[in-house]
UniProtKB/TrEMBL annotation:
Class of the enzyme per the UniProt entry, highest EC level: transferase
Active site per the UniProt annotation: K301 (proton acceptor)
SUPFAM superfamilies: S-adenosyl-L-methionine-dependent methyltransferases
Location of the Ribosomal RNA methyltransferase FtsJ domain: 182-274
Lineage, opening ranks: Bacteria, Pseudomonadati, Pseudomonadota, Gammaproteobacteria, Pseudomonadales
Localization of this protein: Cytoplasm
HAMAP family in the record: 23SrRNA_methyltr_M (MF_01551)
PANTHER family tied to this protein: RIBOSOMAL RNA LARGE SUBUNIT METHYLTRANSFERASE M, RIBOSOMAL RNA METHYLTRANSFERASE FTSJ DOMAIN-CONTAINING PROTEIN
Protein name: Ribosomal RNA large subunit methyltransferase M
Length: 358
């Protein structure tokens, strides 16, 4: 098990590669990346035995912005006559797992393998439970990832549930709520799943809280906030969906989101305005340092070049502004499944020191 396999959005392989390389180097672990533009996966190979596992154990998965999922393992070449036996033999070399996930890359080639993985799922699962390499009752045990690059080349790996994405390939299966006015509603829901532990939703996304939605129209994000029974100030010059206005929970302010200031502090600020990432990060820093909100979710739309560097600069800018204001906060960032040429950033104020609301 000398490598990590990381899933990412197709087209973002070089960002995922730069990120894992940087973080591994910071942790004193050497390795090299193998990837191909559009492959939607990145391999990080560690020549030194034990290094790949050390890297995975030492690195908080939440620090990875461009990786949707990861697993520690190695590759097998199998024949079309018998794929199950070599997988079972490979599993003997790894930990007992709680669950089996069959995965492919998020590409057309990957989708073309769906018939094969479907056919193999049952015999593989049955062989793995018989050999007791997978024990579903052992819910704390790692997950077994069997990734098909092709019908002949398979990666067998493991991830630990407290340090990996909660879904196969890191892709959440969220259902589009029919009443929501736009598909981008799923983006805010996915962000909550990613950034807020499920058992904290009732206290952090609580009924009666006030939220400001900048760039709100037609109201997909506002719908999510209303659905949590919050009061929403929706800021956009464009029209909001009638159904949302009829809920009585939404105040529509036709104004420039960059100039808007709430009359009193709110719990949440969310922002989906399409703009330069530097402008979005300044807006985020302003809301937090002036004490206008306690938590924020905002998109950074990425330019075509230097995307990794751009995200790092945005995060640094926010971090520096918060440090200068003496604010302790968590800052997290992820390219969500629903994010295209963008990433989503979340900030939560933990301790605001002695600063005053301005
Ligand atoms: C991607 S859409 C938002 C979609 C929305 N989150 C949803 O789920 O329905 C971006 C919105 O930002 C608005 N917008 C652009 N610049 C703005 C600004 N400076 N202030 C406020 N809204 C702005 C646009 O009118 C547009 O409605």
């Amino acid at each position: 098990m000398n490598e990590l396999l990381l899933h990412c959005r197709p087209g973002f392989e070089s960002e995922a590669a730069a990120e894992i390389q940087t973080l591994a180097a910071q942790g004193g672990i050497s390795g090299y990346v193998v990837t191909r533009e559009g492959a939607a996966v990145v391999r990080f190979v560690c020549p030194e035995p034990g290094d790949a596992e050390r890297l995975m154990r030492g690195l908080d998965f939440r620090q990875l912005i461009f990786a949707r999922q990861w697993a520690l393992g190695s590759w097998l070449d199998v024949s079309a006559e018998d794929r199950v036996s070599p997988i079972i033999s490979a599993c003997a070399a790894g930990p007992i797992a709680s669950v089996l996930w069959l995965e492919t890359a998020d590409t057309n080639d990957g989708k073309a393998l769906a018939a094969l993985t479907k056919k193999l799922e049952r015999p593989l699962h049955s062989a793995l439970t018989k050999t007791r390499f997978v024990r579903p009752k052992n819910s704390e045990a790692p997950r077994l990832h069997v990734f098909f690059e092709s019908g002949q080349r398979i990666f067998v790996g493991w991830s630990w549930m407290d340090n990996a994405a909660a879904w196969p390939m890191g892709i959440p299966r969220l259902k589009f709520p029919r009443e929501a006015p736009s598909r981008s509603t799923l983006k805010l829901e996915e962000a909550w799943h990613h950034f807020i532990p499920r058992d904290e939703w009732d206290s952090r996304l609580a009924p009666g809280m006030t939220a400001v939605d900048l760039g709100a129209a037609p109201g997909g994000w506002t719908w999510q906030l209303v659905n949590r029974h919050m009061k929403v100030i929706a800021v956009d010059n464009g029209p909001m969906a009638r159904s949302l206005m009829d809920s009585g929970q939404v105040e529509h302010v036709q104004a420039d989101g960059y100039l808007f200031k709430p009359s009193r502090p709110v719990q949440w600020m969310v922002c989906d305005i399409v703009d330069k990432p530097a402008r979005s990060s300044s807006l985020l820093a302003r809301w937090i340092t002036r004490g206008w909100c306690r938590e924020a979710i905002i998109n950074f739309k990425l330019p075509m070049k230097q995307r990794y560097r751009e995200v790092m600069q945005c995060l640094e800018h926010v971090e520096d502004a918060l440090d200068a204001a003496g604010i302790r906060a968590t800052i997290a960032c992820k390219q969500l499944y629903t994010d295209r040429e963008e990433v989503t950033c979340h900030v939560r104020v933990l301790h605001a020191g002695s600063y005053k609301v301005q």
